[in-house]
Amino acid sequence: MQDNIFEWLFAIRGAWGTEFEGGIYHGRILMPAEYPFKPPAFVMMTPSGRFETGTKICLSISSYHPESWQPSWSVQSALVALIAFMQTPGNGAIGSLDTSTDVRKEMAIDARNSPPKQSITEKQLVVDALHQRMIESEEQSK
After folding, report:
1. Tens digit of pLDDT for each residue in 96-108?
2. Per-residue model confidence (pLDDT) at position 3
3. Would you say the pTM of this structure is higher than 0.85?
4. Is 76 one of the catalytic residues?
5. Which residues of the chain have pLDDT under 50?
6. Choice among 24, 41, 58, 111 that is catalytic
7. Could you give the count of Cα atoms lying within 13 Å of 80 in the half-sphere of its Cβ?
8. How far apart are CA 28 and CA 56, in angstroms?
9. Nearest alpha-carbon partner for 42 in 54, 29, 52
10. Spatial CA neighbour of 28 closest among 12, 50, 48, 43
């Protein structure tokens, strides 16, 4: 995989007790060179029914709202916020979707069963390893 210190891959777990429960959602964080003074962009790679895939999503913690960003926020706190945002209505925001609960539950099953496919072999290996680690650590996260 081409080394790019400004692109990070992540995997988050759908929150327990929600329509996203059980899902493992992968994405990319695009860090600006000025981080932590400017916010990152988030791009989801796994369909969830809440966020479009392959599109920068508009959140108060993302590059769409630099006025809201706090340099003291960590990547971890931004990912926790992303999980919380999954449970809110999209309301037409850029990169947001509003699908039914039943569809989101089906997507959560799919998201757990197979990680998103990547065109670069090295990136696929990283995504697969992250996915497996999320499955193995599931009991600890409850």
Report:
1. 999 999 999 999 9
2. 73
3. yes
4. no
5. 1
6. 58
7. 5
8. 9
9. 29
10. 43
